[in-house]
């Protein structure tokens, strides 16, 4: 078997299997038990300053 054929065989079979396992591992890691509070915190992080705006530290630049 030539080098190209060997590399093609590895890419077609073993690399596909490895990438599929990595993909499934990432999905299972994201959906693991106990991760809901982390995901909820990340989802609400954009609204943290919704009631009280963030302080603008550039007030002195605008007056000058």
UniProtKB/TrEMBL annotation:
Annotated keywords? Membrane, Transmembrane, Transmembrane helix
Q: Which domain of life is it from?
A: Bacteria
Q: Which sequence ranges are marked TM in the entry? A: 6-31
Which InterPro entries does the record cross-reference, listed alphabetically? Answer: Cbb3-typ_cyt_oxidase_comp
Entry keyword Transmembrane: yes
From the Swiss-Prot or TrEMBL record, give the protein name: Cbb3-type cytochrome c oxidase subunit 3
This chain's source organism reads Paragemmobacter straminiformis
């Amino acid at each position: 078997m030539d080098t190209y054929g060997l590399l093609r065989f590895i890419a077609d079979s073993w690399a596909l299997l490895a990438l599929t396992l990595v993909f499934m591992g990432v999905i299972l890691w994201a959906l693991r038990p106990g991760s809901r509070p982390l995901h909820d915190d990340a989802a609400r992080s954009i609204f943290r300053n919704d009631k009280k705006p963030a302080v603008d530290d550039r007030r002195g630049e605008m007056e000058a």
